[in-house]
Amino acid sequence: MSGTLRTYREVLALTGPVLPVVSFLGRLPTAMCQLGSLLLVAETSGSLATAGLVGGALAAGQTVGGPLLGRTADRHGQRTVVLVAALVNAVAVAALVVAALAHTGTAWLALIGAAAGASVPQVGPMARTRSVALARRGGADDRLIGTVLSFEGTLDEVSFVLGPALVGLAAALAHPAAALLVAAGLLAVCGTWFALHPTAAPIRPASRQASPVRTSLPGAVYALRTAMVLQGAMFGASQAGITALTGQLGRPEQAGLVYAAMGVMSAAAGLAMAAVPGRITLTARWRTATAALIVLSVPLLFVQSLWALYAVVVVLGVAYAPHLITIFGLTERIVPESRMAESMAFLTSGVVGGQALALALSGRLAESNGAPAAFAVAVAAATLCAVLAWATRPATAQTPPTPAAAAPPEIARSA
Q1: Cβ count within 10 A of residue 165
Q2: How many CB atoms lie within 10 A of CB 255?
Q3: What is the pLDDT of residues 376-401, one digit of tens each?
Q4: What is the rounded CA–CA span in Å between residue 39 and residue 401?
Q5: Would you identify the CATH topology of the domain 1-204?
Q6: CATH topology agreement for domains 1-204 and 217-400
Q7: 266 neighbors 315 (Cβ within 8 angstroms)
Q8: Could you count the other beta carbons within 10 Å of the beta carbon of residue 390?
Q9: Stretch 40-51: mean pLDDT, rounded?
């Protein structure tokens, strides 16, 4: 335990204590906007269909726009790209609030929602790319890189638990519009702060200038991206199944709490990943995580009570973060540095796209056939993840070497 805590202190030494706080607050709006837009449009339009359309447009915008934003950051550096995206996104989210309150037509709401999704500043992927680059520049070993990714994964998990909770609280105490206006404020302030932080300076600008030809990606990258879409599908199907089952049990208000409990356990498992022995390769971790996804998701098919649902989803959460973190780790190993931000954004966008598609599909299945039908989608996605893990052999995913000294704090300041 003391070794794990020491490793996390080394991670914080890379960027200083301020950047993780700013990056967490900067990625929180992403977790708030999906549910916030759904509740806002549903309340102002009185139509769940309209709300679903706007939410789908927002997810589609993020799925398409995220990788493009990451590619631009790889070519021109994060500072200007993230700054412009954060300010545009803040304006787009505020515009969605104004348009919804003004009862604007569905087409315009969907268009604004798509713009809000496409302009998400991708703080999570950018923070991963930035921290890993600082660590590599300081000569950090793969054990420390893994801890960096575990830490970033945990920040993501906590944000996606806290974000919807804040939206629900704002909707209960005031109005869904209040939550989205808070999100817009966080984007403007913390997104700008993240963009202008000293660590946003280009790590190796000379290497980018010397490489005008776009570097190709190894084939394993596409398997990892597909696995991330399937992980998103698990999230969406689980959410639909949880919502359907809690409604069937007469406790619909518990749906958010059940999903949050799963997220909390996933975040805890993500932090614990730093304690995994270095001799266990990333490929072995990936295969183990996907096997756990299958074994731990199957009980969802047989849950019939609220407390059993809590127990099953909390245990299932143990497998989520390790799977996500391992995919990020494998991607970091095999992707050229010149395409790192783009690749990290692809993974995050894949989760968003997979979740939106599975939520739409499994929601319909749950409506006509009950919660087990939605949970069956989650089990099927887990099975496909395992097939990918066993069929793919990322060439550079070798056993991490023995931990060495972490990069000194001066790296962050000199960046």
Answers
A1: 18
A2: 19
A3: 999 999 999 999 999 988 765 443 43
A4: 49
A5: Growth Hormone; Chain: A; (1.20.1250)
A6: yes
A7: no
A8: 13
A9: 85
